[in-house]
Amino acid sequence: MGNPYLSDLDKNEANYQPLTPITYLERSATTYPTRPAVVHGEMTRSYAELYARCRQLGSALTARGIGSGDTVAIVCANIPPMIEAHYGVPMTRAVLNTINYRLSAKEIAFILDHGEAKVLMVDKEFSALCKEALRECDAKPIVIDIDDPEYDGPGERIGEIEYEDFIASGDADFEWLLPEDEWDAISLNYTSGTTGNPKGVVYHNRGAYLLAMGNVVTASMGRHPVYLWTVPMFHCNGWCFTWSISIQTGTHVCLRRVESGTMFDAISKYGVTHLCGAPVVMGMLINASDEDRKPLDHMVEFFTAAAPPPAAVLAQMKTAGFNVTHLYGLTETYGPAVVNAWHDEWDDLPEDEQAAVKARQGVRYAVLEDLSVRDPETMAEVPKDGETMGEVMFRGNVVMKGYLKNPNASREAFEGGWFRSGDLGVWHPDNYIQLKDRSKDIIISGGENISSIEVEDALYKHAAISACGVVGKSDEKWGETPVAFIETKPGETLTPEDVISHCREYLAGYKVPRLIVFTELPKTSTGKIQKFKLRDKANAL
Amino acid sequence: MGNPYLSDLDKNEANYQPLTPITYLERSATTYPTRPAVVHGEMTRSYAELYARCRQLGSALTARGIGSGDTVAIVCANIPPMIEAHYGVPMTRAVLNTINYRLSAKEIAFILDHGEAKVLMVDKEFSALCKEALRECDAKPIVIDIDDPEYDGPGERIGEIEYEDFIASGDADFEWLLPEDEWDAISLNYTSGTTGNPKGVVYHNRGAYLLAMGNVVTASMGRHPVYLWTVPMFHCNGWCFTWSISIQTGTHVCLRRVESGTMFDAISKYGVTHLCGAPVVMGMLINASDEDRKPLDHMVEFFTAAAPPPAAVLAQMKTAGFNVTHLYGLTETYGPAVVNAWHDEWDDLPEDEQAAVKARQGVRYAVLEDLSVRDPETMAEVPKDGETMGEVMFRGNVVMKGYLKNPNASREAFEGGWFRSGDLGVWHPDNYIQLKDRSKDIIISGGENISSIEVEDALYKHAAISACGVVGKSDEKWGETPVAFIETKPGETLTPEDVISHCREYLAGYKVPRLIVFTELPKTSTGKIQKFKLRDKANAL
To answer: A120 pairs with which residues across the strands?
Structure first.
């Protein structure tokens, strides 16, 4: 007898449907139509209303000829139309392209052209920027103004129709479309591009569905979470929380300005249960003035990424009522796909050791199939010794489709059957990974690898240093030598000798910077230090 | 320009992997190796141990030539080897067939032959049953004895090797296999078959992965749930909780005998957070003797299915410390795929109204794409009026592949692009569905449909009735008339007149049974009343 499972058990409409996060919204709207879905200023909308508006948006876009594979771009703060775009656009099988409003007009022009935007929705706050971008690009998208009643700053309408009128022209009973295939694109997210032009990372419906679920599981989100928007939704679709919140019929609390006062107000007024944010957001919360701060009657779950939270910050966050979880991922992995999964027994460690274990990026999400640290040449796994450096690699269903119209970059990224993150790290004996550097930021001196992160960590231990960047400078004898660029705190002065003797306390001799430069550091629109500019500077010294 | 998303964005190993619940276990074992995975009597095994044993099982099966598409059957109580089989068997790409040990030897023989079992694992408690089944069937599986140290009842070893020795022969570092395709079969579950031969329901890896996730979301399972096994794992793979528990690295608490004493002991000793069970299990908990009962220091989440929980039971469960959620599904939908999603405001309703809203089966799981009540002839949706009856239909990724070697039954089940449950129900204005009957159990009298469930509900309101079944009897004038078969409570006596006058209080005249029969009701091995036998009886009256 052969394999009896191979016949007459095929896929059909009843037992196989494309995975897409749109279905999460439909379920919440039909199950809990009156639950609050979106809060913005004085306005609250129910799930029935949110769903109706998303369908209207889909309907109105369809009426303008938007459909499968068309790009709909949006430049917008964390306000309701941004959430609606995450459902209304894919309802037409079009692709949502959220654009970072901290980019230059030139960069936005590049993205509009490269992504072939057919529609551009513009928050009035960013209309001047977009007007200039439109002048500089070849794309001729339909422009829709978003005139948020909660916004009273400068700006003009630059489009042919205002968002509310556009929505009003759509049908709330619009028969939206499932993707034809779950592999179809749902969104397009450009990397911030520390070098060269940004790359267009394409997400598929399957991955968006799964990462949204992964967030719920990772965050232990029960029914009706209340989620405060601090991570920009233009970053990896808000780390896919735009979709996660619909799974448990939660409430999106919008926030145009991320400030300590508005955050504490929202947390206390709406009973926020979860929020995400970069380290700078933690800083705002713990450094809030007494006037801004509100006592919280419940523990709030806070998810951070981008940099390991220091011990002092963790302790202060705890006192302020926040439990911090450390996540890691890249635009190419839909945002977070790795979590510092906490062990209860670590609660008993001294605070600095707790911070040390929490600084590690951790283990794969339940919805990521594999995570590995490998030699980028041989593809062999590095030993789990916490010391041997390798490249962090991802494999699974929450990895992008690839880079739009950039087959070479896609091929490089996927070479060897893994997504190569470009991040260098070690693998600890307990299977947790820890980043050590970006591969291009490693400094090779006298044949020894120097992690620029390690040198920067040592520098940050100096009380007078507020920011720093360490890069390699070409050197005939050593290949490269480390150079440190340093910003000091206001009112502080330092000499190169102070810095070097400080470093000697923490670092092996060959890792101590040979040159110290006091300067203002060049940063990207998202606040990342532009190492390539420092590298140029170092080599020009 | 065409659709730019159609080129150079293909699937590859890095961004597409088959969904399978095996990866959940691997993640828990590498992330939390020392967490307790399985508790049985005095024995506790960690996730590292559970994972190692599953790999050993996979390795040992592979060494015996078991692989893709081979059926591995098991007849076993809710003890550790049953959990291990849920991972170890699919690790070889074989298909797990858990068999109901309450079936007759003849029925088991049919299943072994029909499923083409290559291996049969037998819990000693059921060895006599299996020995007879093996005599009656043509299949010649490798027989492995499971000699549970916690079991001290009668039984002999009937196989060629004991499970622990078999496991010991396997390699704990076995390189287990992902399914070739997520659509591949992972398990085979025979329906209990109220009529004719049981049908073999085939589950795919994709659905098992998704329903396991759906349970976690539906049950709001945070990190490290403690799950008490009362639902037999041979029912829909334990409603897929066998796999769900690995997602949040929870603890399986095994229980060979479901009794009030052992349940309360386990709940209190291990801090059980979640359990599932049929109404009979709720009865055990609320009717526990003072000796068996333990005060609980936390609310326990209880998930029930099969019959709506009555108001009195819900109130008593609450007092006993259990929050009850009502689920619904069929073997064909991996167990529960519908949930009575609770609304907080319903907490304010009077108890009987709470029970009435909780009696409704509810809405789709987040991982089921569509749920509908339709006219089985025209496929038109019935109005959402809470009155018009139609057939409950499912569509989505947690619907079976089909019935094994039964293309006609599969075709019938999927006709019209929906899985036709055979259950009749109504759709309420708030989108919640409520079952009214099995389609074959509806009684058509004088052209009017009579729901046998409605008549039975009325009968159950009589304090002296412990169980009942209502069926149609052929009638020249009316087509059919309703007949009630009734079991009375011990010490109670009733006359047909008592019953009829009781029914008149609750039912329209045409729904009142024409004949009343006091008798012991015929039941299946799983406790379902065999309506087809009652129907024969009624027509012979």
So the answer is: A73, A143
Q: How far is CA B71 from CA B97, B99, B115, B167, B200, in A?
A: 7, 12, 7, 18, 12
Residue A8, by phi and psi: left (phi above 0), alpha (psi -120 to 50) or beta?
left
Residues 6+ apart with CB under 8 A from A323: A299, A300, A301, A302, A317
- For residue B87, the distance in angstroms to the closest alpha carbon of chain A comes to 16
How far apart CA B456 and CA B380 sit, in angstroms, is 29
Candidates A430, A401, A398, A466; CA nearest to A215 is A398
E strands present in A307-464: 322-330, 335-339, 363-364, 370-374, 390-395, 402-403, 419-427, 433-438, 443-445, 448-450
Residue by residue, DSSP assigns A339-361 as E----GGGGGS-HHHHHHHHTS-
Reported for B311-315, long-range contacts at CB under 8 A and 24+ positions apart, including other chains, are B311/B351, B311/B352, B311/B354, B311/B355, B311/B356, B313/B279, B313/B282, B313/B283, B313/B286, B314/B351, B314/B354, B314/B355, B314/B358, B315/B351
Give the mean pLDDT per block of 10 residues along chain B (541 residues): 89 98 98 98 97 98 98 98 98 97 91 98 98 97 97 96 98 98 98 72 98 97 97 96 98 95 95 91 89 91 84 86 95 97 96 91 98 96 96 98 96 97 94 85 78 85 88 84 91 92 86 93 77 88 85
Q: Assess contact for B88 and B56: CB atoms under 8 A.
A: yes
Contact A17 B369 (CB under 8 A): yes
- CB nearest B12 (choices: A1, A11, A417): A417
Question: Which residue of chain A is at minimal alpha-carbon distance from B178?
Answer: A369
b or e along B160-183 (b: 16 or more beta carbons within 10 Å of the residue's beta carbon)? ebebeebbeebeeebebbbbeebb
- What's the full length of chain B, in residues? 541
Looking at the partner chain, which of B14, B24, B405 has a beta carbon nearest the beta carbon of A366? B24
Interface test with A, best of B6, B7, B15, B379 (most A CBs within 10 A): B15
A381, A383, A387, A390 alpha-carbon torsion, rounded to 10°: -10
Contacts A–B by Cβ distance under 8 A: 184
Q: What is the DSSP secondary structure assignment for residue B491, as one 8-state letter?
A: T
H-run or E-run covering B59 = helix B47-63
CA angle B43, B46, B48 (to 5 degrees): 140
Do the beta carbons of residue A336 and residue A351 sit within 8 Å?
A: no
Tell me the two tokens of residue B148: 């549970």
Q: How far is CA A165 from CA A75, A144, A170, A386, in A?
A: 18, 10, 9, 57
Can you give the pLDDT at residue A418? 98
- Rounded distance, CA A167 to CA B160, Å? 71
- Smallest CA–CA distance, residue B399 to chain A, in Å, is 5
Query: pTM for the complete prediction?
Result: 0.89
B-chain residues within 8 Å CB-CB of A12?
414, 417
Q: What domains does chain B contain, in order, with CATH numbers?
A: 17-215 (3.40.50.12780), 442-540 (3.30.300.30)
Residues linked to residue B402 through DSSP beta bridges, in sequence order: B202
Cα–Cα distance between B434 and B340 in angstroms, integer?
Answer: 10
Instruction: For residues A85 and A89, give the distance between their C-alpha atoms in angstroms, rounded to a whole number.
Output: 5
Q: How distant, in Å, are the alpha carbons of A410, B30, B342 from that of A337?
A: 19, 16, 31
Round the average pLDDT of chain A to a whole number and report it. Answer: 93
Between helices B22-31 and B205-218, what is the axis angle to 10°?
A: 60
Sign of the CA dihedral running B202, B208, B211, B212? positive
Long-range contacts of B156-161 (CB under 8 A, 24+ apart): B156/B124, B156/B127, B156/B128, B156/B131, B157/B124, B157/B127, B158/B122, B158/B127, B158/B130, B158/B131, B158/B134, B159/B120, B159/B122
